[in-house]
User: Fold these one by one.
Assistant:
Number 1:
Amino acid sequence: MSDRTEDDTAHPVRGDVRDEAWDLIASPAWRPPSPRTPYDVTPPVLVGLDGGIGGERALEWALREAQEQGAPVRAVTAWSWDARLLAAVGGRAARQADQARQVQEEQLARVLRRFGPVHCRIETVLGEGDAASLLLEESRRARLLVVGSHAEPGRPNVGSVARACVRLASCPVVVVPVRLTA
């Protein structure tokens, strides 16, 4: 014997807990949510900052792009610590995090002084771990990832972090050369 009432026979899933979900999915206006961001958030232009000139050029490029797209900039700086090294010099991980934060703030300030008025929101992230892993994780929620190249003679122009990002990021990646010509 069925538990269905007379009203339930008109629709194959009436009375079922799936009924509301079915009506929602069957609606022509329904679209599945983006796995990257909530509906009301514009994905950021993500930029890696490491204290070097490559990071500064990447931030300048990211600021211009974010303003054109009406998106925020999310500036990411990674830091890591080696317990043996810290023990040898009597340091603490908190000091290294503070130092990374200071490097990030100084780099942002230098670029913003040169850049002029900024018409987009700037978010900062300071994360423990290697830069590539942190940027790759953050790229899952970004519209674009911007990293800089190296400036030092004798080093490959594109470093290991940029190479990892180009290969594995969840969003498009721009590698900004150190020597930009306007």
Number 2:
Amino acid sequence: MKKKPIRFSTIGAFVTGGLALIIGGVIFLGSGEIFKSSREFVLIFDQSVNGLSIGAPVKFRGVQVGLVRAIRLHHQKSVEFPQIAVLIGVHSAEQGSRVGETLSLSDPALLETLIDKGLRAQLRSQSVLSGELYVSLDMLPDEPLEYQLASSPNYLEIPTAKSGLMEDLTANSANLTRSLSGALENLQVVLMNINKKLDPVSDESIQTLQAVRAAMTHVGELLDPQAPIGQQIPKSLQEIEEAAKAIRLLAEYLERHPNSVLFGRSRVEVVERK
């Protein structure tokens, strides 16, 4: 009786599949979601929630306390236009800590007390470039206390406030502006040093420097907090970030090959090969 040949490809497939299951289990169990009990609450938004997805984090002052469970259209007769209902799951406290008892936002009594003192839900940006959002819970006592649901026997409602997306955009714009400004300043320093070493400087290099300065002025106008904000801002910010990187690379190249200002990059590379 002949023995069947060992199929190493089959063994490899089983091993690979087993490893995938083990890794997936470790990630799932390591997140702790399966062991956490949570309570669901509802948030009603009048604005677009584009960028918010199921599974997005819910944070209280930067500390993750839950996840977005569902996003649904909601309409009631007392409101002219449909609204967006966002269901969130807030984790229950598991244990105390060395610095005191763990605060459980899933406790309805405690949550109602916090709401009376100014607890509100907002949409905030995880990344301006990607457009991803998360739900932020914070104490905003100056925001009016307005419940959107006439009654909700299944969920306790957490009032919402206007989104903090403009604040997030302003902060990210300021960071990108500083980054681009630094890159342009470095490029100008490099070109000035080259101007001192190489005479005369080509008209093309002068035009390049003028274009760089004009671009910086345009960027400043685009990122002005008083400027109108359009739907293309995230894309524009990404392009600005890429431009800053390109300018840094150009400055580094000019430092290594100052003759390229006079002769161009291709001619310099040909000379180097010789």
